[in-house]
Amino acid sequence: MSQENLRVRETTPIWVKALGAIFALPILAVLLPSLLVLAVCLLPTLGAYAADRYRDKSLAVTVGLLNLCGALPALGELWARGQTMAAAGEVLSDVFLWLVAYGAAGIGWLIFMMMPAMVSAYFTIAGAARIEELRKRQENLVEAWGGDIAGSRLTEGDQPSNGEA
Amino acid sequence: MHGQASHTSDAIALDQTFDLLPGERLPEFDSPHAEAYGVRERRTGNPFVCLVGQPDLAPRRELIAQLARQDRLPMMMALAWNVVAWPPSGGRRFVAVFKRPRGRRVQSGPGAAFKPWREDDIVRALLQPAAAVLRDFDARALTHRAIRADNLFFDDAAETGCVLGECVMAPPAIDQPAIYEPIETMGALPGGRGNGYGADDLYALGVTIAVLLAGGDPTDGMDLAALLQSKINRGSYATLIGRTRLSLPMMEVLRGLLCDQRAERWSLQDLQMWLGGQRLSPKQPSLPVRGQRAYAVGEQSYWSARSIAAALSCDWQQATAALQRNDLPTWVRRSLGDEALAERVAAAIGVAGSGGGGGLRDRLVSRLLTALDPRAPLQLRSFAAGIDALPQALAVHFGESRQRQAFGELVQAKLPQAWLDAQPLSRSEHAVLRRVFDSMHHFLARTEAGYGIERCLYEFNDHWPCQSSLLEGEYVAELADLLPALERRAQTAGTDGEPIDRHIAAFACARMKAMPDRVIRALAKSDDDPLRRLALAYFLAEIQRATGQASLHALAAWVASLLGPVVEGYHNRDQRKLLAERIQTAAAEGDLQALAQAADDADARLRDEQGFERAKQEYAAIEQEVARLEAGSLVDPEHVRQRSRQAASLVAGCVASTGLLLLTVLYVT
């Protein structure tokens, strides 16, 4: 992307922003109860986002996806009772709905915490299998071309023909 | 006329005309270099005689072919000839069939005594038939070079006429005792006398007359050096006739035939005029210029430049001493008064000064002898030959290492060219000889198989049989005989070693002028064994292509067995297997050309090299990857962290999607 394109993006005309606000404000006004319920239910995601030090925010993504999934029953209950602040208060007073939303976020957190051990175990097994496969390929090469091919190494700068596992 | 030979139980059929009888030995008809056996003509049963040549000598094949239809001449002519398997010798031999003389040999051996002939018997029984033969030879520009008393046969039981013996079973003049040779060629080795000239035959005829008159060797007891000095100082006539009383006509013919100046010697026309009754004035001996003072060689004194040259040529140590004394130019100037000769002698000696090693001294001695007597044979140490007979001398004496070495030095030092330069008169054949010697020099300068002294042997001796130890028991004189001989060798003697050695390589190159030089060069690549073996296959394939011979199964199998390193030169196992199969297929067909081409697939070799390079790189890359894996690159904490975070997001996405789907289903239902 060129410098000129970047500059154009940075200088979005003010009327476009105004037009966006004109459309967004009525929606926000109508969906305020839903936003309130979501804001409460998605607090674990907010916490995960704040706790994740890495740029890819994988912890927030993991917790957030399951947290969002867990918040949907509360949202459904709200929409079933009507988009009012009173209904929002009733929904938020239901502990079961809180438990579902926060429990789903907890499962996400649990997955994130368990994944390194699982991945490490997987890589250990996959690496051994890959070594065995490569040794077999070397044996085939020696059988086809003779032992002389083992007499040299790649020159500096050459890349292995096979990628990482 | 020659043809195929086949064997019956006790006879060998030659040309479907003669039955050779190996069991019927006829020593009375032996030539010095050929044994005689009985022969029966199939149609009539008449007896003939066959002479079996030696395997290391070449018969005079051109002469045989030209004389084949001259059966009216009073001479033993070859009627049929060929190379046949000869059981008494256990190998193949060149044989020729001759009409069997009806009488005995005139002189049973070179030194044998017999009853002296009368002059009129000599004219009738010798000179008239000999003149007829020499007239025919002269018309064809041929020379006999075997006219001597022990090579004459009586033509009938009454012994009233003679026939000349054969002259074709060995190189020219090789069997002539020194007494029969003129001064110019006496000093040469027996194999280095050459074809000579018609005048040399007439000289030999004169000596034969002298021997017949004396009833044996008239110089009996005289060694070669003394005989040579006597001929030089007294003349051949005085040496051979001495004080024997002769009739004037006989003295006339002897003085004419024994004249030591070749140009002044009686010609064939002179002899015919004499036989016709016309009398000529007797030739006076032309003796060399005698010096005022003698020149001492050892304890002997010599008075002429020619006699000094002869004496020095017979004693090389004395010749070397004379060179180092450097007194010959002074002697020539003061005693002979020949300033020009003195300068030539001084120039010959002074080419490289008095220093230098033994080789240089020998070469200077050779130049000195040529300067003193330009007509003498070219000599280096014990090797001496007429200028046109150098290749033949090499061939005859090839088995003697000192003669081979002397020949090599002589050619490399360009002594033949120096000999030609020293001649007072230039002859037309000198230009041809110069080209021959330049070629010899070139061949000797190259050391690889196909060149060298062996090439000189075969290049300039057209029908000389190949002397390779691989062809023992064979007689291979023509290119077409080579591969069949190697095929027989492969069938009978096994396939140890290689089917080409230096002799075979040189023989083939000489007989087949179109042998590619790249093949010859590759044949010498001792540091690249596969390439050399491939060149070996190509070499034989070129011969097969030139001769058009097919179905050389045993030889092809022999060559195929030698191509193992060529096959092993390929890296790829499948390629090796494929190549070996192709080679075996070509070998089974006996096709050497296909065999060589099967073993030499340039595209396959390139593909193999490229594939090998790729395989090497792949192997090395795998080695690096395995090392990285074994070092724990996959379970590196950072790598695991990155991958586990991605995996967690992925799993969460999957679980959330599933949950969303379930909730949607629940909500809808």
Can you offer a commentary on this structure?
- The complex is a heterodimer of chains A (165) and B (669).
- Chain A contains 7 helices and no strands.
- Chain A has 165 residues and is mainly alpha-helical.
- Chain A has a domain at 3-114.
- In chain A, helix 3 runs parallel beside helix 6 and helix 5 crosses helix 6 (85-92).
- The two termini of chain A are 33 Å apart.
- The relative contact order of chain A is 0.08.
- Chain B is α+β, with helices and mostly antiparallel strands and 669 residues long.
- Among the domains of chain B are: 5-99, Phosphorylase Kinase, domain 1; 119-275, Transferase(Phosphotransferase) domain 1 (Transferase(Phosphotransferase), domain 1); 469-600, no CATH class; 634-669.
- Helix content of chain B is 51%, strand content 10%.
- Chain B contains 28 helices and 13 strands.
- Chain B has a 7-stranded antiparallel beta sheet with strand order 1-2-3-4-5-7-6, with no helix packed on it. A two-stranded antiparallel sheet of chain B has the order 8-9. A two-stranded antiparallel ribbon of chain B has the order 10-11.
- In chain B, helix 13 (358-372) runs parallel beside helix 16 (415-422) and helix 22 (529-547) packs antiparallel against helix 26.
- Chain B is elongated, with a radius of gyration of 37 Å.
- The N and C termini of chain B lie far apart (119 Å).
- Chains A and B meet through helix 5 and helix 7 of A and helix 27 and helix 28 of B.
The tally of strands of chain B reads 13
Helix-residue proportion of chain A? over 70%
| Mean pLDDT value of chain A | 84
Strand content of chain A: under 5%
Query: Distance N terminus to C terminus of chain A?
Result: 33 Å
Alpha-beta classification of chain B = alpha+beta
Give the low-confidence spans of chain B: none
For this structure, the CATH topology of the domain at 119-275 in chain B is Transferase(Phosphotransferase), domain 1
Look at the structure and give the CATH class of the domain at 119-275 in chain B: Mainly Alpha
Strand count of chain A: 0
- The strands making up the biggest β-sheet of chain B line up spatially as 1-2-3-4-5-7-6
Number of helices of chain A: 7
CATH homologous superfamily grouping of the domain at 119-275 in chain B: Transferase(Phosphotransferase) domain 1
Chain pair forming the biggest interface = A-B, 55 and 43 residues
Outline type of chain A: elongated
The main pleated sheet of chain B reads as:
7 strands, antiparallel
The arrangement of helices and strands of chain A along the chain is: HHHHHHH
Strand content of chain B: 5-15%
